[in-house]
Records
---
Amino acid sequence: MTIYIPTPLRTYAGGKDAIEIGAATISEALNSLTNEYPELRKHLFTNEGKVRAFVNLYLNDEDVRYLPEKENSQVSGKDTLSIIPSIAGGCETVREA
Amino acid sequence: MSTLSLSESMYEAIRAHGEETYPHECCGALLGRHGEDGWQVVDAIKAGNMRTDSAHNRYNIAPIELVRIQRSAREKGLEIAGFYHSHPDHPAQWSPTDFAEAHWLGCSYVITSVAKGKATVTNSFLLAGKTEEDKRFEQETIQVGNAPGEQSEDLEETTSIKEQR
């Protein structure tokens, strides 16, 4: 499968924006990815080994969190996994000028 | 200090987006290439604000929209250079919420203040640092001029540089 690396993490993935990984499940693919590029691990996972809350994983166009098997979902060579840190914010707590 | 470069038309489009969505926050993505001094923006893509429950003071871009934006950037040979949003009736300064929810290290976060429906100040902040734990916002210079390939009849205008503070 192909894993797409977002701009901020490319530094830790040999400068690549896409990496081909042979794996049977999403979890396996992420393990292979972080074994090959160990510096990615702390950016993707908490100390407890869970995917960080702000890191979104999309298998093709599907949010992995909502797949029945989640990270244990089976994957094939044609699948893509996009790693997408979240984008949010707002002026909610800005002090008035 | 790093520099965010973008064309006059793109700069105005970003600010106009904030006026269009007022009194709600607008948001979007910036595509470009990294130069010596910072990001050179080539394209700005409007995004929908998912925070319909509190759109006047919060924004959130749907991850699936980001997946598609990232795909589009790849197809154009570009990178996601950063993001923009507006602060309706609030200063063009990052808020604690902006900081807590900023995770694109090395990317630019552009904020436009929209006062009573009119875009006023636009600032850009680079999310510097190497990890979530040492990240910080650093104000950038915004350089407004001609984007590569963009023509303008007004030479003086096209070479002008506007620094927003």
---
Amino acid sequence: MEYRSPGSVREAVDLLAAHGGGAHVLAGGTDLLVKLRGGYVAPEVVVDVKAIPQLRGIGEDARGFRIGAATSCAEIGEHAALAAAWPGVVEALQLIGSTQIQGRATLGGNLCNASPAADSVPAMIAAGVVCEVAGPAGQREVPVETIVIGPGRTALARGELVVAFRLPKPQDRSGDAYLRLIPRTEMDIAVVGAGVALALDEQGVCTHARVALGAVAPTPLLVANAAAALIGTRVDDVALAALAAAASAACKPIDDKRGTVAYRIKVAGVLARRAAHIALERAQAR
Amino acid sequence: MPKHHVTTTINSDPVEFLCSSEQTLLDVLRDVLGLTGSKEGCASGDCGACSVMLDGRLVCACLVLGVEVEGRKVETIEGMAQGDRLHPLQQKFLEHAALQCGVCTPGFLVAAKALLERKPDPTETEVRYWLAGNLCRCTGYDKIVRAVLDAASEMRRN
Amino acid sequence: MNDVTMKGLSERLFKVVGTRPLRPDGVDKVTGRAKFGADIHVPNMLIGKVLRSPHAHARIKSIDTSKARALPGVKAVITSADLADLPSEFIPAGEMMVNYRDMTRNVMAREKALYEGHAVAAVAAVSEAVAAEALKLIAVEYEVLPHVLDVAQAMEPGAPLLHDNMYTIGVEPKPAKPSNVAKRVEFALGDVAAGFAKADVVVEREFTTKPVHQGYIEPHACLASVSEDGQAELWCTTQGHFIVRSFCAKLLGMELAKLRVTASEIGGGFGGKTVVYLEPLALLLSRKSGHPVKMVMSRTEVFRATGPTSGARVWVKIGATRDGRITAAEALLKYEAGAFQGSPVQPGCMCAFAPYDLDNVKVVGFDVVVNRPKVAAYRAPGGPIAEFAVEQVIDELAKRLHLDPVELRLKNAAKEGTKAAYGPKFGPIGMVQTLEAARAHPHYRAPLKANQGRGVASGFWFNIGGETCAALNLGEDGTVTLVAGTPDIGGSRASLAMMAAEELGIAVDKVRPIIGDTSALGYNFLTGGSRVTFSSGMAVIEAARDVIRQLCERAAKIWEVAPDEVIWEDGHARSGKLALSLAEIAETAGKTGGPIVGNAAINAQGAGPSLATHIVDVEVDPETGKVTILRYTAIQDAGKAVHPSYVEGQMQGGAVQGIGWALNEEYIYDKDGRLENPGFLDYRIPVCSDVPMIDTVIVEVPNPRHPYGVRGVGETPIVPPMAAIANAVENATGIRFTALPMSPPRVLEAIDAARASKI
């Protein structure tokens, strides 16, 4: 195994393009090193992207926030303006692993590891986050929900790399939230995750909503029906019940060591409802 | 594949070592440099026994490649006491009997120190969540949490 | 807060015992200096690795190691062909009975691989990478056989048979056919049929528990070096280096005196480090290669190939009169032993009703083999499983009788003079005292909110003594080196030094305790059975008395008085107005007769059971099934708490292990019998944020068989938690959970089912 630490996006893209499936991106390494140790992957080359300036740090401009894909979750969690703007996204990424994992784990890694249970992904989908993707053909911007296409599989082409995430400026009277269910209080992979972002008009009627679920299907799900259950309502108990039902109905989970089909379907509705309630309170307070 | 020559700083000392691409920082610390205070409990980031500081961030040494620490600063349990003076956390762990077998203790101490550097007055809940990545099977965590809270209180006084 | 209530205070006024000095090995452990099993490197060392069966049950048709042996850097390859076969007989190793035919097969599969992870070959090579490469070059031809993992299925007539020569022991006449049932045991007292006939209320239920791992944070590790003349050194992480010596010597045909075993610092054991896995393989690889060989397990190997304790089915029936007097109690326990016989079903049977004073008891147990690693001891082996069942039935009985559950227990509590179903009459024990302390505790009356519940359960553990040696070597400056032979897992060097200081009348920091290797002392049984503070403590006190006798003789010689005119008091020899301190006598020992050394070699008897009562509050999320532990109080009889902090630590640690067992820990298998959760990610032991502070109350009912009244305390704390939590969940939800773990999917399923049945 060769270790490379390119200093530019161009160099990284060239390495990834040259090696194709034999190249693995090393960002925080919290998934990759476990796979290496377990013998699940045997890369020809590991491309450490942390020395590339465009992949590091958090910026704020007229469009909103830009988070470098290799920025550690610990660093993102310390960004006060970001946490105020997108508390659900920040809470979600802070749920990834322990304090130690936070010191290394990145949004790029959490997305591109392509686990259906990645905590940050439903929250980012709900928030309408867009990825900057660089590749041999140049740079493009794509919604987060288009990246993961199956467990461990992404829509990234040979040589492509997620460089950064773009979070819009939050609308007035909007809020987001993410909740997950794990058997313990920390350190587990989500059995179910639910992210909700919504906005209200001046009368308190929901004008915009996005609902995303994790760990209930081969990929994180954007559930349009669940969002539709909120839009046009005051997000009252009736709307929340409809949201929960729509969320449960969208699940296509499996039985595995972490949960059963029946459990995931039921709890997806519960968490979506609870997350919507938190998002609502945040929107009302903003 | 030739080994990498890595120049780094460990516990404020300049250090050079050779490692292969596959070797983790934990492998390097323990097997190459003889710094066996960092323990391997799982090698998957689930137990925290190999907690070290990397450029001021708490990380699991088992999830860092050795070659990644080129030009960076690593702090381990071996650097925690100053000369013959224990860090207040080390002293409080002893006073509160916050260890039984002691194999998780270096990781807990490194993690707790990182917490108190950021948050000198943590609540019990904050201590518990910050330390959730450090497994202890002996103590039930009670005396560990008490020791950290007491050390925080003492460090604030001094 | 943690407090110590003194019940039946012994007459002796202690100066050191009962205080909380800093542990003598503490600084090494907070600085990273302490050397654990994997922390040793020696020159010219090889790395050994084990090839393990990927199958739960398979006949080994052939093993071809030629390619591995040919790989540059590989220095030795071994299989079961390198180990002598041993006959099936139970022979003593200390107090334990050991079957070496099973042991040699457990360390290296012979005819069959009996579980996924079973060792089939091992290599030693110049690096870990070369050793790993060599394992890939070993070709094993398997004939995969049907497997069985569950005790009930393993007992069925057509079940896959692990051993075709296993005929159930303990049934008459001897069965005609082999089965997976190794043994039947029975304990009975009185007449249960007559007892149930007198009962006004009878509660009967069946329970299930899953196998759980001890979960020590330090994986197994060792370093072996065998020289050409057969003398060998072994460094390993173990609860008993003397038993490691016995086992390895027998497996490898070595003489005991040629094998010196040093116990490293040990990173947790909880019973799981009372057996050998890597040690004989490392010795063999070293003997074959001529190099020192180090072997360390990965966490995955720890889960696949070591521990756990049994999964079980337990049926319990208890009857009582309207006023709460139990008239009869009956139980049937079926425990999984893993691949070889020897589950803790016998102690489980003995514990089951031990906390109670009963006239009519019958307990039957079955020891059943399944395709999982041979179970290893786990903290009060067998007890928690039995009490999970019994203490829930007691709780249900209290409910049916409209009695407070503590009150019902008090009405039936075992006390001094109670005859246990397993034989003995108890001496003074603390069941009543722990129950009274529970009833008096503010926790027991604290208000609860919606979806919250409170549970109580008691627990019993025998505790053991056994073969123990200790030495006290006086330095000429009056300091004392204490040599013990029981590895210190939880702070026992502190408590042993305290007892030496107490007896000698000197400051505790004048005693330096160390754990000697197998050449330093006579045989010591292992650290287990909650025996160390009791047995090694007793040996240390006896060695101190040996020292005192010599000190008095020396003083008599100096003063030219008769030895019986000298007494020992407050660290001084005294005769009339004459006084000499220990340090003063030690200083001139060279002139008064030579070095002063105190020795003890005992077989400690009279350990005295320890009883506990735990109170726990939970909250159950009715929509997700998640159970949160809100408050926990552990109350236990310690006899005499030598170092109360470490007694509390045992109580707190045991309670939290029990919380893990109750809520989330379990082995999960795929259809081929492969473990799906061999890591700390999905084998979910409690983390710091899962639990509240664990309040403790130490009750002291002195053990008359120990000079200071000490009882073992390490194991009892894991006996009550599962039942206490199940009782609390029942209190919160109205649903009785008879299966562990009470994980969110299971709890939610039961809540939904209960709701559906009400509609």
